[in-house]
Amino acid sequence: MLRRELGVAMPNQIPETITKYEVLFALRTGVTVMLPKVAAFGGGDKVPLSFKVSPDDPRDILIKTATRPVVLKDLKKEHVASAVSQGFIMFYEMEDDEIVRSTLCHYQGD
Question: What pLDDT, on the 0 to 100 scale, is given for residue 110?
Answer without folding.
Answer: 65
